[in-house]
Amino acid sequence: MRDSTFSKQLALILGYFGISANFGGSVVSLITGLTKVSKAENFIISAGVCFFCTFILIGIFYYLCFKKKRYAKFNAVAITFSGFVSFTAMYIATGNFICGFPYYMMIIPIYYGFSVPINKLSHALPVSNLIYYNLLFVLTFKAPYFPGRAIMPNLSLLQTSAAFTATYIFLFYVCYLVSKQFIQQNEKLEESEKRYKELSSRDDLTGLYNRRSLDNRAEQGFSCAIIYDIDFFKNINDTYGHQIGDEALIMLSNIVLKYCSNEFELYRYGGEEFVILSRLPDNVTLELFKHVMNDVRMHFIVKGNPVTISAGIASFCKDYNRTLKIADENLYLAKTDGRNKIYMNGEEVY
After folding, report:
1. What is the pLDDT of residues 170-182, one digit of tens each?
2. Is the pLDDT assigned to residue 168 strictly greater than 70?
3. Residue 202 domain flag
4. In the record, which residues are listed under signal peptide (predicted)?
5. Residue from 84, 107, 80 nearest 25 by CA
């Protein structure tokens, strides 16, 4: 079915219009018929009953569908019921052409145009409804005892059917094309927003998730956090330039990424600092990061010189910021104790 947001908006319009129009129609018709203001009070009372029954049915179905958020289903059932049942009953009860009811039938192709799904069955319901209405016209002109038969003397079946069909098709396709264009533009907009969110959550240099993404995901069931950075990174920038420094950051990211998974997520925190959020038990996380440290010691080489990292690990507590603060304090201890080490709970663990 079409876009859920669009379906919800359409369902709101259909529901409010259907409930208010049918309630208003039932009140006016019943008052007019019962007070005998019109000579056609029987037809008008019948129309009022049809309006009232439709009002009740739409109200109940509207409540049930919105309670379960079945917006597209409400649209399909409401339009189909109105087109094949409700409008037919009103057409007969109001005296057909005398009351100009075919004009009200033009609401149906407008509804269909805005609500049918974009697939091979898009035209099945509106076409079948059009054929059905033309059969009603045939009965109106040809059946001698058709209920409420009242034909204007200057009308012919061919003229009536041709004019109605042309108008019906025109309204349907105009609304269908407008709706289709709206849906396509909405899909493009959502895709652009999705790409923008993805780009805004990524670090431009390394392609890792950035601090914004870290803040959004930090409390999603992680067990511990690791903060690590490059030892003597300022010396690399000062000696070889920032381009080599950037290449070092990318190289380190690629080394650590080999160990990452949904249970072991890597983020660039800022500058030369990185954060890993782990869902693994603390001891498993520590053992895994030891492998990371060994890999870095062997393969993290800048301009022929081996480069190391220092890290601090902290178990997650209720306050995410407090967890990172503890991990950062452990990182500071690793730095002041000679670097190239892992600290956890205030002690060197590797």
Report:
1. 998 898 888 888 8
2. yes
3. no
4. none
5. 107
Q: Do residue 163 and residue 233 come from a single domain? A: no
Q: Indicate the number of domains in the chain.
A: 2
Distances (CA, A) of 57 to 9, 15, 22, 238: 20, 11, 10, 77
Query: How far is Cα 99 from Cα 141, in angstroms, rounded to an integer?
Result: 15
Sheet with 264-270, side-by-side order of all strands: 264-270, 273-278, 224-230, 309-315, 342-344, 347-348
Question: Is there a single domain that holds both residue 167 and residue 28?
Answer: yes
C-alpha pair distances (Å), 333 with each of 10, 329, 340 = 61, 6, 11
- The token pair at 54 is 């439709």
226 shares a domain with 190: no
DSSP string, 186-248: HHHHHHHHHHHHHHHTB-TTT-SB-HHHHHHHTTSS--EEEEEEETTHHHHHHHH-HHHHHHH
The tens digit of pLDDT for each residue in 301-343 reads 999 999 999 999 999 988 888 999 999 999 999 999 999 999 9
Residue 57 domain-assigned (yes or no):
yes
Q: Is the pTM of this model over 0.90?
A: no
Q: Does residue 264 come out as left (phi exceeding 0), alpha (psi in the -120 to 50 range) or beta?
A: beta
Residue 120 placed within a domain: yes
Compute the distance between CA of residue 297 and CA of residue 118 in angstroms, rounded to an integer.
Answer: 57
Residue written as token pair 């301009």: 303
Which of 174, 197, 220 terminates a domain? The answer is 197
205 in any annotated domain:
no
Structural domain of 96: 4-197
pLDDT surpasses 90 at 232: yes
